[in-house]
Design brief:
Structural class: alpha+beta
Shape: globular
Strand order of the largest sheet: 1-2-3-6-7
Low-confidence stretches: none
Number of helices: 3
Strand content: 25-35%
Order of helices and strands: HEEEEEEEHEHE
Radius of gyration: 16 Å
CATH topology: Peptide Deformylase
Helix content: 10-25%
CATH superfamily: Peptide deformylase
Number of strands: 9
Bound molecules: zinc ion
Largest sheet: 5 strands, antiparallel
Oligomer: single chain
Distance between the termini: 20 Å
Number of domains: 1
Mean pLDDT: 95
């Protein structure tokens, strides 16, 4: 496996609607493995194909670790998803605010409202049909990635202009108040 270069704004590929994946052969398998490697290396929880310069309907997602009843992280509890040609077929009316960052907009964070749960239809890495029901952070990351496949970025969906910070400013706010920062996800 090898690491791919992550493209950042203003790369035009980030604003294009992607093409469906039709060939599930060895080239796609290698691309997916390299995307997983690249996501982990960048400490992201998701990576969509346009973020490595490929205009394809494909994303990899590795959500946050699960926590036990005392709030401690359970080791090796992150779920890895490879999603090809995904489509959101249902969104909950309940929405939640959360803090997101993007590997293609390094150094910034912003607050975005997302559906709390969604249903997604698509294909796995071998082209088999899959259906997923997702909630909370996993649902948020999927919405962020599927937006990427439509040329949409989280900065298009901020809850307010004032809810956009440099990472430094974001964490400093909490430090100044002596509070624990809210959880964030960069994808
Ligand atoms: Zn992103």
């Amino acid at each position: 496996m090898s690491k791919l270069e992550i493209v950042t704004l203003p790369a035009p590929v980030l604003r294009q609607k992607t093409r469906p994946v039709t060939d599930f052969g060895p080239e796609l398998q290698e691309l997916i493995d390299n995307m997983i490697d690249t996501m982990r290396d960048a400490r992201g929880v998701g990576l969509a194909a346009p973020q490595i310069g490929r205009s394809l309907r494909l994303a990899v997602i590795e959500d946050l670790p699960k926590e036990d009843e005392e709030g401690n992280e359970i080791p090796d509890s992150r779920d890895l998803y490879v999603i090809v040609n995904p489509e959101i077929v249902w969104e909950s009316r309940t929405v939640v605010d959360g803090i997101e960052g993007c590997l293609s907009i390094p150094g910034y964070l912003g607050e975005v409202e997302r559906a709390e749960s969604i249903r997604v239809r698509g294909q796995d890495r071998h082209g088999n049909k899959i259906r997923l029901r997702l909630k909370d952070w996993t649902a948020r990351i999927f919405q962020h990635e599927i937006d990427h496949l439509n040329g949409v970025l989280y900065i298009d969906k901020l809850t307010g202009e004032e809810n956009f910070w440099t990472e430094e400013a974001y964490y400093k706010r909490f430090e100044d108040d002596g509070e624990e920062p809210a959880e964030t996800a960069v994808a």
